[in-house]
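User: Continuing from earlier, I have the next pair ready.

Assistant: Great, send them over.

User: Here they are, in order.

Assistant: Folding the first of the pair now:
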Amino acid sequence: MCVGATTSAPIRYSRAPQFGQNRVAPSPSRAPHCAQKRCEAACPAAVWEAAELSSVYGMSASALAPVLVSKTAILVNLPAGVPQPRAPGCPPNHPTTRPRPTSRSSPHNPHSRRKVAHHATFSRIKVARYATFMRRKAAFLIYHSNQRHPKAAGAHAPQHEHRWTNTNGGETMLNRKITQRLIAWKTKPTKKSLLLQGARQVGKTYIVDRFAEQHYKHYVSLNFEQQSSLRDIFDGDNDVDHIVARIKFAKPGSVFIPGETLLFLDEIQSCPNARVALKFLTMDGRYDVIASGSLLGINYKDVSSYPVGYTERITMHSLDFEEFLWAIGVNEEMIQYVRGFFDRRVKVDDTIHEQMMRYFRQYIVIGGMPSAVRSFVQTRDYQQVLNEQRGILADYEDDIAKYAEGTEKAKARACFLSIPRQLARDRKKFSYAVVEKKAGARKYAGSLQWLYDAGIINFCHCLETPQLPFEGNADDRKFKVYMRDTGLLIAMLEDGAQRDILNNDLGIYKGAIYENIIGDMLAKNGHRLYYYEKDSRLEMDFLIRYHDMATAIEVKSSANRKAKSMQSMIENHGVEHGIKLSSGNMGAIGERVDVMPLYMAMFL
């Protein structure tokens, strides 16, 4: 049955202010007569417009796709008398024109206020514009239909349902890949205490709270920053029974049952003795223990009883591009559809490619910090996203002032604020002179390491020779510095940078931003970052081990398909494989260089 077909009990729909106050939503009885094929089978482009609108209307893309068709298969309410594009499989003699209604509200009634021109005078452009309007109107109608009929809408519920409850009682669905790692840790027959590390506000506390809620009968959470008095629990001896007793007195109602209780030690960097106690909690083994902290690499270098061998570390990042797509309504099936082009190394459908590039530019601007993504999903307001991001940057500066020691405070802050200027240079190798004239590594190297340990930046080290193993060929004195979240890098720029990126209008600096986002994506996929430079004449943005091959990656903001540097790397420097990432579509240069869209980096 074609979407919008006549039903025995037509649903009354409210007006759609988004489409103008003088437009009344049509009832289902005013459906096109062509009912032979579902639109979504006619053109996959419908699926991609559905994904975009699903995040606006708050429903699943699979429910929207049937009414959002491509420009070549429009099966929605065009004006009466206008020939409908025939769906694939529709019989040649099947009527494609809706009969003219005779009611006073008919668009063909000369007295109607909603009169439209006769179909013979409609140009192709007018029809296309009207069809676009009606596609979006249909999406609005289906949204309200599902609000009135939740059972029907439930069939299209999102597959990924981590819930983030906001202050207004609503929910923003987030799915994080790290949940699967937590589940794998829980199922181990013998396990160490888990140490969850990562920068501030990447969602560590939230994900552990949800994990405990779904997988444990009892959950005890201690946050040493919110309640500083809880630090006293670990001032005594490290006997586990004594620790449990002190927790029960400090937090009445806490339940400890072997195998059924998760103990969460949050912001553990504020309680060094709790970090020491992890050894004894692991040896005891009765209770599962997770500890998290934002500055673990900074606060515990001088702890004499560091629990070596008793903890398992997991680093949590901000949302990667795939997680961002989930958050805005692009489901896993659609992502795997894109991956099919990557695996087969074939050209991506143009409509899908253009939409993916729009999503990619959104991700550059918004980044992956959960509060920024949540703000975008709920409001679609880039200014609110920017406010969230600059609040996070202010928190980072506060952390520097709070935790950095002595003169390191000013030096770490100066290094942090220099990052946009470092990336603007033609040679992006980090220069201490950009931080302070005539300064060197002796003065600022420790400050940069502080930023790395705090989870704020990534290092990309230069290789003396681009051959495996890379770590053995890295030069620690030459490196580039990238922000771990590109959205925060954009927030460090002046107002208006967001708009320039979304409109693809940014100038020379666009190359630096794209290089940062690719470095961020590679790091989140588990790659250590390296680059190669020789005599200022040859530079390769990244080198990674990919399928056990030394693979060079070149990042370009344009669709230029020339690859002179890449060819030189392969012919003269022992690199086995090359990947050129650009705004263009899939392709190849010779037999050993693949050309890919920038967003395909999520699959590397």
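And the other member of the pair:
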Amino acid sequence: MSRRFNIAIAESEEELKKRLQTARLGSQKEKLQMLWWLKSGQVKEQQQIGERLGTDTSTVTRWLQKYRNGGLSSLLEIKKASGASRKISDDAIAALKHEIDRSFSNSCITTKKHTFWFSLT
């Protein structure tokens, strides 16, 4: 059995419930659910939170630490990976688009299809 812990949750139960109902992302819903359970007194131990959410207690610990250090905005922050850099240069893409545009202008493809194709590139 894990030990009990104390955490001061600044948001009201009502505010957490409202944010939980309007949250769109599953990861944010889980975190808001955790805070709501704690605020409403439904859970007293990190292990209970992990069991209810189906996550490891180390994940719960990390979430609670984020909340303690930065509040709700820090807990719900979604960091986006920068991703790999483009392998084709901007000049090559511009040249390719120019060549395709020239090819399309010499054919009977409709403007709608032409616009659709460029939206994919």
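Worth noting for the second one:
Helices lie at 13-22, 26-40, 46-53, 57-76, 90-105, 111-120. The chain has a mean pLDDT of 82.
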